[in-house]
Amino acid sequence: MNIFYNIKLGINDMLHNIGRTLITMIGIILGVMSVIVVLALVEGGRQQSIKFMEERGGALKLSIEREWSFDLDKREQFYNNRLSLEEARTLQRYFPEIKNFSPVVSRSVRLKYGGDQFYSRLRGVLPAYQAVEDFHVETGRFITDFDVEEANKVVVLGTAAKERLFGVRKALGEHVIINNNSFQVVGIMEKKELYMGAWGHNVLGWMNRRVMVPLSTMVKKLYYNEQVHSIDFTVGSMEEVEPMQKEIGHFLRALRDGKQIFEVEANSDRIRQIGAASNKMQFIVLLVGGISLIVGGIVIANISLAAIKERLREIGVRMAVGARRRDILVQFLIQTILISIVGGVIGMILGISLLDVISRFLNSPTAASVQMVGIALVLSAGIGIFSGIFPAINASRSDPVEILRYE
Q1: Residues 69 and 201 in one domain
Q2: Contact 222, 76 (CB under 8 A)
Q3: Among residues 332, 342, 385, 286, which one has the least CA distance to residue 24?
Q4: Cα 132 from chain centroid (whole Å)
Q5: Three-state SS across 244-260?
Q6: Is there a contact between 338 and 4 (Cβ–Cβ < 8 Å)?
Q7: d(Cα 209, Cα 157) in Å, to the nearest integer?
Q8: Which has the higher per-residue pLDDT, 72 or 131?
Q9: Are 190 and 307 part of one and the same domain?
Q10: Same domain membership, residue 99 and residue 36
Q11: Cβ neighbours of residue 354 closer than 8 Å, sequence gap 6 or more
């Protein structure tokens, strides 16, 4: 029998029994709708996390920091196991393919301007700091090579530091006091914003508190200590990330007689970890959603069995005039699949239409994708087959003589 004829029969039956059809679909609609919403929340969180890493320099950025698994009882490890500025320069010479090389020396300080003060983490940096952090000056200028060569007493403020010390007043050209030294403000950084979480927290707000001075000024005129707290740099392509990570790791171990004092972290590794965590979360969502859809499928199966009993005369007449058991099985299986797919499409539409409302209510990003549509349709069709196969087999095994005699 033509499959299109069975589809037509299924559509007619759905339209003639619209109340029963809607009751049958409701489990599928709610199940698919919840799966779409939760998948969109997971995807939105994944995209936000990746955006966070991109705002911190992107996938080509690597960082050298101290390994934190040292013995806390050995206090000298806390203070002495850092790279010196000379070792950082040796590293740069040894790996000329490194781009945007940016060692950082940092200290906690208090900045003062008039009667106002601001506590921050002061960073001694090079001009490449802007590029490697993807953090740029919005007003004025950044630290230059000339500032580094001359160890100039100039400072660049993050927006939080500027607002705390100067409010709405002009900051460029003014002088702030750092450790009893007067520094001229030459630049104000751009404001970093990325809101995540139910409370709309700006996860990049700490970057706005940063205060930068030339690296040479930091080590020659403020603290007289050339221990580097971290080194950030970039490479030219993704293909260079892993080899560079390994080679620099070997180099750093050689500097410390084979000891694992430092670690080389790559943003690309964190991005991959975010993707892996997102995939696991999506699997859990699909597992839980699948269980709820199976419950909806059981409802479809029960209602289909009841409907078959109501249509025994129709089945008997069709089989008496030549319909095969396979034709009856296909007819009722197609009808349950149709109900499931239509319910899945309705649930998908409702889920997508609710994303904006849910995003505002939870203050959390959502992101729909073509993949979600495919998942919804596949789940719906699968539930239709699962829930319809037993009622369809039961209908196809009916004896037309017994049915017509009963009727």
Answers
A1: yes
A2: no
A3: 342
A4: 22
A5: HHHHHHHHHHHHCCCCC
A6: no
A7: 8
A8: 131
A9: no
A10: no
A11: 33, 37
The answer, yes or no, to whether residue 266 has pLDDT greater than 80, is yes
CB 340 within 8 A of CB 297: yes
pTM of the entire predicted model: 0.66
3-state secondary structure of 214: strand
Is 80 part of a structural domain of the chain?
yes
Whether residues 15 and 95 share a domain: the answer is no
Backbone angles phi, psi at 114, to 5 degrees: 60, -125
Paired tokens of 160: 């939080």
pLDDT band at 5 (very low <50, low <70, confident <90, very high): low
Dihedral angle sign, alpha carbons of residues 264, 55, 46, 275:
negative
User: Residue 323 is part of which domain span?
Assistant: 3-53+273-406
Pairing mode of beta strands 154-157, 211-214: antiparallel
Compute the distance between CA of residue 93 and CA of residue 97 in angstroms, rounded to an integer.
Answer: 9
Helices (H) and strands (E) in the chain, counts: 14, 14
Q: How far is CA 207 from the centre of its chain?
A: 20
Specify the range with the lowest mean pLDDT, choosing from 20-29, 272-281, 391-400. Answer: 391-400
Check whether residue 279 and residue 224 sit in a common domain: no
Domain end marker among 207, 234, 261: 234
> Is 242 contained in some domain?
no
**Number of structural domains in the chain:** 2
In a domain, 384, yes or no: yes
Q: What is the pLDDT of residue 403?
A: 55
Q: CA 189 to CA 161: how far, in whole Å?
A: 10
Give the contacts of 60 (CB within 8 A, at least 6 positions apart).
234, 235, 236, 237, 238, 241, 267, 268
Q: Give Cα separations from 60 to 192, 208, 229, 358, 400 (angstroms).
A: 20, 23, 20, 34, 72
Separation of alpha carbons 59 and 270, rounded Å: 9
C-alpha span between 310 and 302 (Å, rounded)? 13
Whether 258 is in a domain gets the answer no
CA distances from 255 to 68, 127, 341 (A): 18, 26, 64
Closest CA to 395 of 335, 343, 321: 335
Coil/strand/helix, residue 385: helix
Say whether both 30 and 77 belong to one domain. Answer: no
Distance between CA atoms of residues 276 and 50, nearest Å? 12
Domain boundary among 181, 207, 234: 234
Evaluate whether 328 touches 398 at the Cβ level (below 8 Å).
Answer: yes
Q: What is the tens place of the pLDDT at every residue in 148-172?
A: 999 999 999 999 999 999 988 999 9
- Angstrom CA distances, 196 to 54, 201, 205, 379, stand at 15, 6, 11, 31
